[in-house]
Write a structure and sequence with these properties.
single chain; 232 residues; alpha/beta; Spore Coat Polysaccharide Biosynthesis Protein SpsA, Chain A; 6-stranded mixed sheet; 6 strands; 40% helix; 13% strand
Amino acid sequence: MGHNYKDTALLVFSLSSERESRRKSVFGPSRTSENKVLFDILIQQTRELADTSGIDVFWVDESLQRGIDFASRFSNAFQDLFDKGYNKIVSVGNDSPELTPAILQDAIRQLQTKKLVLGPSKDGGVYLLGIQKSAFDKHNFQNLPWETSALHYKLVQFAIKQNLQFSTLCELVDLDNFNDVRQYSRLKFNILSRYIQSLIRTKRSRFTSAHFNYKSSTHLLSCGLRAPPSLH
């Protein structure tokens, strides 16, 4: 990036492909192999994206998440990194394939001067959230309407109420259901869209990861991501 943001960390808050494929049965609950391959691809893309960030990366999956629900687990992950000494945290998930290194790096740069950076998704949520330690209140953070279509609006209202300087990035798509992935596959031409189109064309196919060697046909190989930290 050309900068040394030692006090800034990237939090990738992501379940494993096995857990995601069960939580979001995009192609139907009976198509476990197809669902898993979808999230394998998304997670590998996210790993490659994270490797371009130029800052410390912390990959927090279900083995490291603590809490009774998403809000508490997400809040704990932020608090743990602030407790480690970071003053600024940018968080992303695994379901925003439109997120690019340029957008991510712009968010990191903006967070150096803004208290809050928001990447709104088309469904009303956020695909990226950056926050400075001085603006983080765990109780208020945990009480936001996570995983709802009101999240981005509530975050903006929170920033205004707290008189926080914030910035908003471009709007992107999250892939949460079949309609999302179908629409994405119509607009893009890459390995992910080709995989989705193959499944849509062959509803009863036995299309599995064995038939779709995505790692050998693209750059989705080892990205050298730092090992996950012990967030306890």
